[in-house]
Amino acid sequence: MKINRNPNIQDFRIHLTLYFVQHNIKGLSKFDILMMSKICHRVNLLPIIAKRDGLTNHELSICKKNILKDIMVNNIKIYNFLSNDENNDDGGEDFMTLSSREYNYLNELDRVVPFSIVGSNTVGENTGAITRITKWGSINIEDENICDFKLLKSIIFETHLQEFKDVTVEKLYESFRIEQLLKT
User: pTM to 2 decimals?
Assistant: First the structure.
């Protein structure tokens, strides 16, 4: 059955939710689990560890591992770069259309999740560098060795914006529509 829709209707749907979590090495709070469980079937969801500068690399690793464990245990659906790639329309495991370079890139993105960022409080007037000034010094938040801000910005605005929209329209919204139609 073909569904006819007006192509001139403006799209006000939310295509991506950046869900900021506290940097707790114990994992997600009960509130975070509840909220992420509620929204994960309606929108593309990317968990982000806030205030990364408060964690050592070892603590960050533990924090990420525990957050991912909580996500899996609670069946929270987060955006999966590899399975949601536009070249893999059926969501299956047929990655034959991806080059090994593309596959490795998408696989690496999935391994980075949850992203971790440092919030900035200063933009350099002469350099334009986005930094966080602390009493111990300044942190360049675009330094990929420190946080994932630059990568996240690239994903959202350059490489995956259309994929987020496509997944919203083709998977999430259609699933929502079917659910609503079955209720009536």
Answer: 0.79
